[in-house]
Amino acid sequence: MNDPKQQKILILDFGGQYNQLIARRVRELGVYCEVKPYRMTIEEIRAFAPLGIIFTGGPQSVYREGSPHPVEEIFDLGVPILGICYGCQLLAHHLGGEVTEAADDTAREYGKTETSVDSTCRLFAGIPETSVTWMSHGDYMARIPEGFRLAAYSVACPNVAICDESRRFYGVQFHPEVNHTEYGREMLRNFLYTVCGAEGSWTMAGFRERAVKEIREKVGDGKVLLALSGGVDSSVAAALLAEAVGDKLTCVFVDHGLMRKNEGDEVEAAFSGRELNFVRVNAENRFLIRLAGVTDPEDKRHIIGEEFIRVFEEEAKKIGFVDFLAQGTIYPDVIESGLGDAAVIKSHHNVGGLPDYVDFREIIEPLRMLFKDEVRALGRELGLPEDFVSRQPFPGPGLGIRVIGDITKEKLDRLREADFIFRDEVAKAGLSGEMDQYFAVLTNVRSVGVQGDGRTYDYALALRSVVTQDFMTADWTRIPYDVLDRVSTRIVNEVPGISRVLYDITSKPPATVEWE
Ligand code: XMP
């Protein structure tokens, strides 16, 4: 974001597990923020010009050698600071208080904790005196620093929050960013709006305008190439780039024949009306030939990824000299890859690695500062159809890893039908918003059945549905029996070759979301 007028919150990362969540909460409250490494120099911080600073939590102890600390001058900037957990202990440690290891269970707190706040402190304005907060700390503030006063306590811990209203420094031992903290959102809102004076100027309409301008300036008369997978990120990137540079953009959509029912046509329909060059390559045959007889999941992934690159390269060559390669990288990828600033070609999670020898000058990643929910909001802003924007994640290797064992066109077609019925019934039951990912898997188990008067010996199909925040862990969805019943009845009646339907009730871990 190069807009000097944009109000920005700086989130200094001390290695806590909820750091992305803090950033998402701040953005949801309408304020732009960036997560940066704690090693930032004072010059870098000044150049960033933060409206306020948040110190995140972290796994270390502030008094241990080698633990992460911010530059000392940060406390003299006159900028408000909110320290969360480890960040709160940093405030205490640097400003003359004392942090020690909690000697016993008295001051060490984990989980939901009843907490009492002083609502005359601006951070807690309008918040009930007693509410539940989420704690996770083994250290505690034995002495609060000079100039600060106590602003919250719990049964186990006398010093749960501190504030120095004149310097606008606030520290909380608990985590306001997690949902378990009943009034966490309100506390963050107080910090942003009342303490820092934020105006709530972060909107996708504003982002769109600035991004379009920046992309235009950068691209000039050059040509841009984008690998469009049909997933949300690359689709939104395509729509944004199309608005910015129009027909200087070429989107290559490789239809590998492993898409869901109607998906290829939906992607084409969403982009055909726009002013851009859209190339759909129907490559089903060549993928199926390469995949014939392959049963190992990793071999399938490898073959699909490699074949994708080959097709993409051939198309890129036809287009000729390309100045810019665009990617749909989003902010969690940036944060997870170590907060590096360099735009490097990384293994693209959708397509398994783009070629680094296409003739291009630079990479453009217009979504690299956006979270997934913001990408969806931007997609709506750009007029992409709602069912497109809200679609669930779909793996790059597509149905190739949902047909267990060897892949044939016939099996793919059956899986496509069954998967479509599952999605259709979920939508009719109004449950799509309650599941983060749901799909069908064609197993390679055959079982005996009876249909009409005859014996059958057909395939078993598994349904999978999960709820999850981040796909690292996931819980299986408690789909109502009557919905499962309708899905099962329809599938065995409407899809030939499937005579049994199973529901996968395994969480991740120990299972993964996909079967292969
Ligand atoms: P797992 O199966 O690892 O899935 O629990 C977690 C999430 O990642 C997706 N997934 C993939 N996405 N290429 C992708 O682009 C892949 O090879 C791949 N494997 C799994 C999966 O759909 C889920 O959203």
Overview of the molecule:
The protein is globular. It has helices at 19-28, 42-48, 86-94, 184-195, 204-219, 232-245, 263-272, 284-291, 297-319, 331-336, 372-381, 386-389, 409-428, 481-494, and strands at 8-13, 32-37, 52-55, 81-84, 98-101, 109-117, 130-137, 139-143, 149-154, 161-164, 169-172, 224-228, 249-255, 277-282, 324-326, 362-364, 437-451, 454-467, 475-476, 498-503. The protein has 516 residues and is of the alpha/beta class. Helix 8 runs antiparallel to helix 9. The chain contains 14 helices and 20 strands. 32% of the residues lie in helices and 23% in strands. 43% of the residues are buried. Xanthosine-5'-monophosphate binds at residues 301, 349-350, 393, 395-397, 437, 471, 508, 512-514. The site of xanthosine-5'-monophosphate has 13 residues, from loops.
Q: Uncertain regions: pLDDT < 50 for 5+ in a row?
A: 340-352
Helix content: 25-40%
User: What is the overall silhouette?
Assistant: globular
Overall SS class? alpha/beta
How many DSSP H or I helices? 14
Strand adjacency order, main sheet: 2-1-3-4-11-10-9-6-7
Distance between the termini: 39 Å
* Mean pLDDT rating: 91
% residues in beta strands: 15-25%
Compute the number of strand runs.
20
CA radius of gyration: 26 Å
Query: How would you characterize the largest beta sheet?
Result: 9 strands, mixed
List of distinct ligands in this structure: xanthosine-5'-monophosphate
